[in-house]
Amino acid sequence: MKLVKKLKTAVAMLRGGHFGTLLSHFKISREVMGVFNLYPCKKTCRYIILGGHGMGLQSMCYYLDVIGADAREAFCYEFIEPFYFARRYDGLILDKIPKAKSAKNILASMPVKVPCYQIVRDPIGVIKSCLNASMFHRLESMHTKSDMRDLLLRLLRDIPHLMFYFASMRDLVKNQISEITYWDQDKITTCLETTLKDFSLRFGYKGLDSSGGGGDLFLRAVPFIAAFLIFLNF
Fold first, then answer.
1. Three-state DSSP state, 88
2. For a disulfide at 126, which of 17, 54, 65, 225, Cβ 3.0-4.6 Å?
3. Res 3: pLDDT
């Protein structure tokens, strides 16, 4: 029965075009995807950024792109993106603990010692943020407090790696870290401009134009507001 259920799930994913989700669903495919990063190549970067869902990582990545910081997320669903290290990039971004066990070995093979920046936030705030985002996609099924409780328990049980694993995530690259700097929520909200200025000076990026962003909530939401407006035009 389990095999039949898995086959039905796979067919549904294929029909929906969710190929990445399908590859992440099965252990063997997750590990096979990692093989593509074991070929001989120069695995290097200038800095590492650790974050996670519900912590402001995507907004931070947007502004890093604005200042010219070429940082790339390593994980594609539950495995490291195939041939990730064959592409040019400056910064390595990790946003979860992937289910593919080969990912740790791949990252451990990087012969570098670079500065690491880790975004931190209180766990309750992270859970609230993830819960609110999940509710937005399930408004039609949210009717009672019981529905909310069930969704919360499902989030904690099924996708905890998307939320917070502060120490475990750092352990993925512990041998590649020369020093660590913590970006708390003030650093990426009210003090965002100063944070980006310090980062730019350290790595030689162009910096943030004074009219290009500050630290308030509206400016952090600019990339998402723009995407929503584009969606409305369609």
1. coil
2. 54
3. 60
Q: Could you identify the residue written with the tokens 């912590």?
A: 55
* Residue 198: partners with Cβ closer than 8 Å, 6 or more residues away: none
Task: Check residue 218 and give its pLDDT.
Answer: 47
Q: How far apart are CA 169 and CA 180, in angstroms?
A: 13
In the DSSP assignment, the letter for residue 81 is: P
What are the C-alpha distances in Å from 54 to residues 119, 125, 136, 161, 171?
11, 8, 14, 12, 20
CB atoms within 10 A of CB 153: 10
pTM higher than 0.85: no
Q: Give tens-digit pLDDT for 138-166.
A: 777 777 888 888 888 888 887 767 777 78
Rounded Cα distance, 224 and 232, in Å: 12
Instruction: Tell me, letter by letter, the H, E, C secondary structure of 16-41.
Output: CCCHHHHHHHCHHHHHHHHHCCCCCC
Q: List CB contacts of 20: < 8 A, sequence separation 6 or more.
A: 76, 77
Give the pLDDT confidence of 198-216 residue by residue, as tens digits.
Answer: 999 999 998 776 554 544 4
**Residue spans of beta strands (DSSP E) within the chain:** 47-50, 71-73, 75-76, 79-80, 91-94, 114-119, 177-183
Q: What is the DSSP string of 172-197?
A: TTGGGEEEEEEE-TTTTTTTHHHHHH
Residues 6+ apart with CB under 8 A from 197: 207, 208
Extract the tokens encoding 226.
Answer: 């723009």
pLDDT digits (tens, 9 = 90+) for 23-81: 666 677 777 777 777 776 778 899 999 998 888 898 899 999 999 998 988 888 788 88
**pLDDT over 90 at 192, yes or no:** yes
Judged by DSSP in three states, 131 sits in helix
